[in-house]
Amino acid sequence: MVTDIEKVIESEDLDQDLFTIVGTSEENIEKLDSTPYSYWRSVWKNLFHNKVAIICLVLLALIVFFTIFGPMIMSHTTPGNPILKDQIRNLSPSSEYWFGTNDGAECIWTVIWVGSRFSLVLAAVSSVINVIIGLVVGGLWGYIRKLDPILIEITNVINNIPSLLIYLMLMQILEPNFWSMVFVMCLFGWLGLASMMRNQIIIIRNREFNIASETLGSSTSAIIIHNLLPNLVSIIVQVISGFIPSCISMEVSLQYFGLMDADQVTLGKVLSEAAGKDYTAYPHTLLFPALIMMIITVAFFYFGLALADATDPKTHM
Fold first, then answer.
1. What is the share, in percent, of the chain residues with pLDDT greater than 70?
2. Residue 312 and residue 232: Cα distance in Å, rounded?
């Protein structure tokens, strides 16, 4: 081939100054002109080009930072003397008390971050357990057809039971502590992810690449892990992004009904105590904890949406 090109170039009809023979190389043949595609590189590239995702990530990082170091930055001990306690009750925000004080003469800055720390840890642990159960049950549910009628009936029964009533009953029976809250939140929390997993797996399990894996004798676990889950990452991330805000909302609801440990400071306790007092006269007692909760839930929601878009292979260039 090279010899033929050289003959053409050496012909009298062509200007030889316009051509340069560079020859061939086995190494150059194997090189690609473009950068090889990397799924996770594309994910992070898309994610960090999303300004909303960056803002939400910064907000969440600040929230986590203050839940750890906020009480150390500024902390005031509630005085035991009733006279001194009355003097600092319901103080407005100032240089000494940045978020003011509440009806119990507590520093709102301190109780917000202590309560947020507990609520975030509770939501994170519950979300991890829900995700693991949802992925396992959803993967088996969608791939093993014999489980389909059984789990569909279980889902129908659970969906027709008022879940809040069950949660209230369980919290009345169980001792109100961290792990009882985790148990209540994980009782039915995994069902939504499992159901969505089942529906998506049914859609993609009959595609050509999956049929080829079955024909070649791949095991069920290998097909679920290597064929199905990579195509479901964006959907899984989108569902997971709603777990933490929903867990925090549930904790606030149960705290409002007085079903949490009375001695444990949580974000729900701060909100419920503020809502139960005359917050119209002292709006800062409700405004600041409500604002922190709103930032946490909105930031998680929009960051989850951005991450879901970034993990969708269809958005990769």
1. 82
2. 8
| Spans of all domains in the chain | 42-315
Burial environment of residue 24 by CB neighbours within 10 A (0 to 12, 13 to 18, 19 or more): exposed
Contact, 108 vs 99, CB < 8 A? yes
pLDDT digits (tens, 9 = 90+) for 238-261: 777 777 778 877 777 777 777 777
The residues that bridge with 125 in the sheet, in sequence order, are none
43 in Cβ contact with 310 (< 8 Å): yes
- Quote the DSSP letter at residue 75: -
Task: Give me the CATH topology for the region 42-315.
Answer: MetI-like fold (1.10.3720)
3-state secondary structure at position 21 = coil
Which class for 297: exposed (0-12), middle (13-18), buried (19 or more C-beta within 10 A)?
Answer: middle
The CA distance from 311 to 231, in Å, is 9
Dihedral sign computed on CA atoms, order 186, 191, 192, 196: positive
- Work out the number of other CB atoms within 10 angstroms of the CB of residue 210: 19
User: Is the pLDDT higher at 184 or at 205?
Assistant: 184
- The contacts of residue 217 (CB under 8 Å, 6+ apart) are none
- Return the ∠ at Cα 293 (arms to 268 and 109), rounded to 5°: 80
Q: Are 177 and 120 in contact (CB under 8 A)?
A: no
- Reported as a single tens digit per residue, the pLDDT across 32-57 is 555 666 667 777 887 888 888 899 98
Backbone φ, ψ for residue 107 (5° rounding)? -70, 115
CA distance 291 to 27: 60
Residue 58: the pLDDT is: 92
pTM of the predicted model as reported, rounded to 2 decimal places: 0.75
- Residue-wise pLDDT for 296-313, tens only, equals 888 888 888 888 788 776
* 44: its two tokens: 């992070």
